[in-house]
Design a protein that fits this description.
about 500 residues, alpha+beta, seven-stranded antiparallel beta sheet, about 35% helix, about 20% strand
C-alpha cells in the first residue's frame, strides 16, 4: 500500500527549526521543544504576555507545558532510524529548491525526507528554504505597511482634533471676553448715570443755597441801613419785617459724603477680578492635565529593558534639611543610615520630626530613572510631593499614608505598596536593588527589582499635579535596632 508523504517540517520545532526534542504541546495545539518554548516565554515574562510563536494566540496566564507522548515516541523511533541510509527502493517526497547553510549557500534539488524511515537527505546539514523566508519577509512588510497606514490615520486624527479644540477654545474665550466687555460697559454706564444724578442733586442744593445767601445779604444790607435811622418810630416800624428770617430748608438736606464716592464700586470690581483669577487658576488645573494626557499618549513608548531605562537616569542626592535626626547622611548625601542616637541637625521647617524619612534635593519632572541599594531591617522607596507634612508622625507626614506620596516597602522576604492608606501586597523576586521609573507628564510610576534581570514589581497610573521628589524611609521589622541603610547608586 502506498504510504502518505511525510516531511520533516511537520516534526520540527518552529523556534529552533530542528527536530523536536522532548516535545510539549500548548493549549492552541502546537508543539515545541520544551526548552525552546520555556526560554521563549522567559524572555517575554517582563511584559507578562504569553503567546504561541506559531499562531500568535495570546494566553492570559502562562500555560502549563504538557509532554506530547505520541510525538516523543515518534521522535525516539526517528532517532533510531535517521542514521541508517535509505534503501535504494525507498521513495522520497516533494523535492524542491532549497539552500544549504553548510554548502556555501548553493541551491540544490533536495528531498525533505524518506517516506519509510524519515531519514534526512543530508547528514548534519541544515536546509534553508528561501521561498519560506521571502514569505515571512513579505508578510512582515505587509504588517508594517498596515502599521504605517494606521499611524498616518492617527496623525490625521490628531491634527483634526487639535484644530477643532483650538477653534472651539477660541470661540469660548471670545465669548468670555465679550461677556467681560459687556459687563465693563454696563458698570461704566451705571457709574456715569449715578455720577450725573449725584452731581445734579448737589448742584440743585448748591443753587438754592446761593439764592438764600443772596437774600440774606440783602436783608443784612437793609438792617445796616436801618441801624443808621435816627427816627425811632420809623426804626420800630420797619425792623420786624427785616429781622424775621425763614428757616433754611436746604442745609439740613445736605449730606456731605467722604471723598470716596465710587471707591466701593472699584473694590467690588477688584473682588470680581480676584474671583475670576481663582476660577481661571482652578480651571487651568483641570485643563493642564488633559493636555498632559494627550502629550503622554504621543510620546515614546514606555521603556522595557534596563538599557532603555538608563537613557533617563537621574542622579539623586538627599536634602540634609529634610532628614530626621535618627538618620545619618554620607557619601555626598547619596547614602542614608538609621542610627541609635539622634544627630545634631539645626532646626528647619522642612525637617521630618517624627518619621525616619528624608527627601531628595532634586525636583523630578519629565522622565526619570534611578536605582537604590538597600540593606537592614527594611526600607521605603518613595516618590512624594514636597508639601507633605513634616511635624510629628501623623498620616499627613508618613510616606504612603496620604495622597501626596507613593511608597514601596521592602523587607527581606516581601514587598508592600502604600498610597493614601491603601495597602497592596506586591509579588516578585526580592532584591537588594530597586529601580524606579517616573514619567511625570504621563502619570506613570514603576518600581522594579534589579538583579540579573529587571522585573516589574508595581506600576501606578495616576495624575501628577506637582513636581515630585525621591524619598527614603528606614525601619526595622520587630524592634528598633538601627543599621538599616539605603544608597542611591550612580547608573550612568
Amino acid at each position: 500500500m502506498a504510504q502518505r508523504g511525510v516531511c520533516l517540517e511537520e516534526f520540527s520545532c518552529s523556534i529552533c527549526l530542528d527536530l523536536l526534542k522532548n516535545p510539549v504541546t500548548i493549549p492552541c495545539g502546537h508543539s515545541f521543544c520544551k526548552n525552546c518554548i520555556k526560554n521563549y516565554w522567559d524572555e517575554d515574562s517582563q511584559r507578562r504576555i504569553h503567546t504561541c510563536p506559531q499562531c500568535r494566540k495570546m494566553f492570559r496566564f502562562r500555560p502549563v507545558l504538557v509532554k506530547n507522548i505520541m510525538l516523543a515516541a515518534l521522535m525516539d523511533n526517528l532517532k533510531k532510524t535517521r542514521l541508517q541510509a535509505a534503501p535504494a527502493d525507498h521513495c522520497y517526497a516533494g523535492p524542491e529548491d532549497v539552500a544549504c547553510d553548510v554548502c556555501t549557500g548553493r541551491k540544490m534539488k533536495a528531498v525533505k525526507s524518506c517516506l519509510s524511515c524519515l531519514a534526512p537527505p543530508l547528514k548534519n546539514h541544515k536546509l534553508v528554504n528561501p521561498s519560506k523566508s521571502r514569505q515571512q519577509i513579505q508578510q512582515r512588510i505587509q504588517d508594517q505597511e498596515k502599521d504605517v497606514k494606521l499611524l498616518q490615520q492617527e496623525v490625521e486624527a490628531i491634527n483634526v482634533s487639535a484644530d477643532k479644540a483650538v477653534e472651539d477654545s477660541e470661540k469660548i474665550f471670545t465669548e468670555l471676553i465679550r461677556l467681560l466687555q459687556k459687563r465693563s460697559s454696563e458698570v461704566k454706564q451705571q457709574i456715569r448715570s449715578q455720577q450725573e444724578t449725584e452731581v445734579s442733586r448737589v448742584k440743585d442744593v448748591q443753587e438754592k443755597l446761593e439764592q438764600e445767601i443772596t437774600e440774606l445779604k440783602r436783608k443784612d444790607a437793609e438792617l445796616e441801613q436801618l441801624s443808621h435811622t435816627e427816627d425811632h418810630n420809623q426804626f420800630l416800624l420797619n425792623y420786624p419785617s427785616l429781622s424775621a428770617l425763614s428757616e433754611s430748608t436746604h442745609s439740613s438736606s445736605i449730606n456731605i459724603r467722604p471723598l470716596r464716592h465710587f471707591e466701593d464700586v472699584t473694590a467690588a470690581v477688584s473682588e470680581l477680578r480676584d474671583k475670576l483669577q481663582d476660577v481661571l487658576r482652578d480651571t487651568w488645573t483641570n485643563i493642564s492635565p488633559k493636555l498632559t494626557e494627550v502629550e503622554g499618549s504621543l510620546t515614546e513608548p514606555e521603556p522595557k529593558t534596563r538599557t532603555e531605562f538608563l537613557k533617563y537616569s537621574q542622579e539623586i542626592t538627599l536634602d540634609r534639611n529634610t532628614a530626621n535626626r535618627f538618620l545619618l547622611l554620607s557619601k555626598g548625601n547619596r547614602k542614608v543610615t538609621r542610627v541609635e542616637e539622634q544627630r545634631f541637625y539645626p532646626d528647619h521647617p522642612d525637617r521630618f520630626a517624627g518619621c525616619c524619612q528624608v527627601l531628595s534635593r532634586e525636583s523630578l519632572t519629565g522622565r526619570c530613572y534611578w536605582e537604590m541599594e538597600w540593606s537592614g531591617g527594611g526600607v521605603e522607596v518613595v516618590v512624594s510631593n514636597k508639601n507633605i507634612g513634616r511635624a510629628g508622625s501623623s498620616n499627613e507626614c508618613e510616606f504612603g499614608f496620604n495622597g501626596k506620596s507613593w511608597s514601596l516597602n521592602c523587607t527581606t522576604d516581601s514587598y508592600t505598596f502604600y498610597h493614601n492608606l491603601v495597602k497592596t501586597p506586591v509579588p516578585g523576586p526580592v532584591s537588594s536593588r530597586i529601580g524606579v521609573y517616573l514619567d511625570h507628564r504621563a502619570g506613570i510610576l514603576c518600581f522594579y527589582s534589579v538583579s540579573g534581570t529587571t522585573t516589574l514589581l508595581h506600576r501606578v497610573q495616576t495624575r501628577f499635579t506637582q513636581p515630585l521628589h525621591a524619598g527614603v524611609g528606614l525601619f526595622s521589622l520587630f524592634s528598633y535596632n538601627g543599621g538599616a541603610t539605603a544608597e542611591f547608586v550612580n547608573v550612568k
